[in-house]
Amino acid sequence: MREKKPKGGLTLQFAKPLLTAFALGSVVALPAHAELDVATLKQAIETSVESEYPKLDALYKDIHAHPELAFQEEKTAAKLAAEMRAIGFDVTERVGKTGLVALYKNGDGPTIMVRTELDALPMEEKTGLPYASRDKTIWQGRETFVAHSCGHDIHMTSWVGTAKTLVGLKNQWNGTLMFIAQPAEEVVAGARAMLTDGLFTRFPKPDAGFALHDGAFPHGYVNYRVGVGSSNGDGLYIKFKGRGGHGAVPQETVDPVMMASRFVVDVQTVISREKDPTEFGVVSIGSFHAGTADNIIPDEAVLLGTIRTFKPEVRAKMHDGIERTAKAVAAMANAPAPDIKITEGIKAVVNDAAVVATAEKVLKEAFGDKFTATPPRTASEDFSEYINAGVPSMFFNIGVYDPERVAVARNGGPPLPDNHSPMFAPVPKPTIQTGVTAMTLAVLSAFDQRAKGQ
Ligand SMILES: [Zn+2]
Ligand SMILES: [Zn+2]
To answer: How far is the CA of 268 from the centre of ligand 1 (A)?
Structure first.
C-alpha cells in the first residue's frame, strides 16, 4: 500500500543550505537545493539503506547468531567498534566495562546522541531461523543458552546504518554525532555504568538524545509518545522464614511454602483492591524457590519479583501494600517477620516535549499514519538514566512483523511472539530499514532545530 503524501509538506531548513550535491553510496545524488523536503530526504535515506543492506544484513545475522549477555559483550562491542571506525568515527572502547562511545565531528554545532544496547538474554532461541543462536555461556554460575530475543541486534544494526547514512548526509548538518553502544540494558545497569565511567565528562554532554526499541507490531510503523514512555521498575525480594520438618508431620513445622504461596495470590489484591484501577501498577513474582525434596518441609522460601508503575504516588502505595501483605501472611502462620527488600530500580523514561515536537513534524511527514502516538509501555528501560542526567530525549518504537501476520493475530489468529519470547523473530530488512530511516530523520530534525536556535 502506498502512502498519500500530504500536500504543502514541511521543509527542513538545514544548517548548510548551499548544498551542491551529496552522494549516499554511489546510488543517490540529490540535486542542489536550498531546502530539502522530507519526502526526498526519506527516499534518499531508503536508497542508501538499500545499497548498504547486504552489509547490514550480514552484520545483523552475525550478531544475532552470536549474542552475549550483560557486561560480557566483548565480541559484539568489537564488531561495532570496527564498523564505526570504518565509517570514520573516533571510537573509545571499554566505557562502562564493555560500552562504546563513537564520535563524529562535523564542524561547530550541537552534539546529538544515539544509543543502542549491546546485550542479549539468558534463554534458548526457538525460532528455527537459519541464523538462530545456539550459543551458550555461563551466567550466574550456570550454563545457559543466549539469544537476542529482545531485538537489540536490530537496534545495533540500525545504529550502524544510521551512522553510515548521517555521514553520507554530512553536508546537511553541523555538529557532533555521539553514538553510544551500551552494555547490560537487560539488567538495567549499563547506562549507569557508562555514566559512572565518565560518559558525559570524558565526552561531550549531548544536547539531545535518541534511542529506539523494536516491538511486536507491523514493520514500517513507528510508535512514539510525549512524556512517560516506560515504567518505574523496582525489584522485590522476600524471604519467608518457617520451621522445617517432615512432610508427614506438618503440625511440627511452620511451612514457608504455604506462606509464600498465599503471598503470591494475596499480593494481587494490592493491585485490584488498593490501587486506583485507572492507574498503572503491576507486581509479578518471577522466581519462587523453596525446598529440596518431596517429603521435607523446608525452612524458608524466597521470592523474587518486580514492581512496575508510572507514578511515584502509585509506587509508594504499592510498596506499602506489598510489605503489609508479606508481614500479615507470616503473622497468620505464626512465623517470624519475613525479610523484605524492595530495591529501587530504574525510573520511567520521560520523553522531552521539545525534542519530540521537532522530530514529530518530520517523522509524521515521512511515515504518515504509520507514525502514531501510543500509550506508554509497561516495560522499564535504563535509557531514563541519560534523561535524568540532563539529556532531553526521545525514545520510540519500531515494528518487526509482516503487517498481514499482525492483522491475522489481531483477528483471533495465533498471537505473535513478543520481545523476550523464545520465538521472537523480527523480519530483518524492513525493520532495519525503518529503524535507520526514522532515526536518521530524528537526528537531522534535532540538528536542524538547534541550528535554527529553537
Ligand atoms: Zn529486553
Ligand atoms: Zn530490550
So the answer is: 24
